[in-house]
Amino acid sequence: MSERTAAPAGQADGRTDDQADRRADRRAERRAERQAEEGERRADPRRRNNRAWLLVLPVVVSVAFTAVIPLMTVVNFSVQDIFSPGDRLFVGLEWFRSVSRDPEVRAAFVRTLLFSAQVLLLEIPLGVLLAVSMPRRGVWVSVTLVLVALPLLIPWNVVGTIWQIFARPDIGLGGWAVNNVLGLEFNYTLDATDAWITVLAMDVWHWTPLVALLAYAGLRSIPDPYFQAAQIDGASAWATFRHIQLPRLRGVLTIAILLRFMDSFMIYTEPFVVTGGGPGNATSFLSILLSKIAVGQFDLGPAGAFSLLYFLAVQIVCYVFFTVLTRTGR
Amino acid sequence: MADIRLEGVGHSYDGGRTWALRPMTWTWRDGRAYALLGPSGCGKSTLLNIISGLLSPTVGRIWFGDREVTGVPTAGRDIAQVFQFPVLYEEMSVYDNLAFPLRNRRRPKAEVDRRVREVSRLLGLEEHLRRRSRRLDPGRQQLVSLGRGLVRADVAAVLLDEPLTVVDPAMKWTLRSELKQIHRDTGHTLIYVTHDQTEALTFAEEVVVLNDGAIVQAGEPSELFLSPAHEFVGHFIGSPGMNVLPAELLDGVVRVGDATLGRASVELPSGPVRVGVRPEFVRIGPAGAASGPVARVTGVDRMGAYNLVHAEVNGHPVIARTDAATTFDAGATRVLRFAEGRAFLFRDAVRCGALEPLDGRAGA
Question: In what residue span(s) does the ABC transporter domain sit (chain B) (predicted)?
Fold first, then answer.
């Protein structure tokens, strides 16, 4: 290190005059360039007009109608206390302050975050495992694809209904089996933990196939020579997965994680059908609480502030995930 | 390590209806550099994958020395294979890529380090050892793939499946001579698959020509050029390929139309026969000089260092390679002469004899 720095210093000593001359030359050149540029700008002002911005207009208009204007109505609600359609009061950021301090909202936030974390921890590894064990070619490819994709084709509230009945301890196959075959006491309408497990199991059943299909598509895109090279290099099945399959799943898994986070963080229909947020507040996620405030109690101001904070939370977490997932390993 | 012997090895992808590789018996001798030459789809890669164990042959047995390996999986065969495109463990550094085959085999750390450094010095990758392998240019990536093949000292053979496809032409020459050097230094058996004759002829000690799933000829490059054993070899090697003239064999004398070409070198039953001669060995004499096939010149391609004279004998095209100085007008008639010992007779595409001058050289 020291040798390397010493060399240019030694050179500099010998050539100081020479370099000073050259530096002066360069300064003069730069000055000339700058003058030439300014001259051009003054000579033809019309050359730099901004009319090309008009081309962005269609995007601005459509985004305004699909996103900005609806969002602004929510912003409008969030800063007012609305007693009746004709009687409203501007309250500033008052609702934001009260919503963010509301213990019920805070509890729901933690609950939802916990739920999303569990969903990701279960569905991503399970989905990858499923994809790895699906056949790469042959007649069984289409059979497994259809079987795996089946839960994805069922509407949300039907999924809720299926599980609402399936998990019932008296007439549901699943609930009955847990109680009478496994001998465990299980009742999701009475026990908070049981309700949580039911909703989590339902989400895993419903959405692991999505992760599996994405991962399967990623795996299919790996050319055969990679696996052949791994065989020649004597790589074990685990090493093949770790060094060939997993690195090539980075892209699809980023998408899978983002989709599953957003979806599970905003989950509404299924728990609404199965547990309705109960028992107590056990499965009362942010969206369920929000609809209770907005539609149930018709508190538009707090609901507006709540929505915006909710939206912000989703954005931030997605941004963090995306940045971390795309930047690591570069 | 040992010779690689194939005993009646053949492969069919459709349960025996068609052969991708016809059952063959062949020995790859230890320490030689082979080129496996043939057009796309002739079974080159199939043969390679059978040797490395990525594919089990439909029939036949494989021996490494006196050990039968037909049922042994790839990892147990100690074969290195380099593919057409660089195959890397992309998130690993160059060093880790090179060390990977040794680490999988649980070699001691010191040995791994020593081998990786040796191989990287050989391939000129020393300065890139710490870099992530996917950051390298394709040529260097292919060198890393090659390095993974060479890093194990005890491989039975290194198989190269068109390894220079992705490398740009200037680099190709360097790499090819580097491969030759590596072969000299390591003494591994090398089998180099290619469809490029120049690549095969410059690289290998022995060229094996494969066509339609069968070995049609094997030998030193000059042998393939000077005495092709099969019409395909004549066409495929050499640029342009060998001329083929349909002729008639009657009582040992070969005739094309009215002209007598010469005598068959061996006793052959009379009947149609094809005469093969390379453009390099076709001489153009003056019109009416001696008895021989009469050709009508149809055109001349100027190639710079030489000319290619296109002519027609009895309606069949013949190409002759001549000095750059010679000129012929299109439409001129000339008599052709074939260099002695360089024209061969073919039946069913297989060489059945050579063309010899008639007694006293009267005809030639």
Answer: 4-237
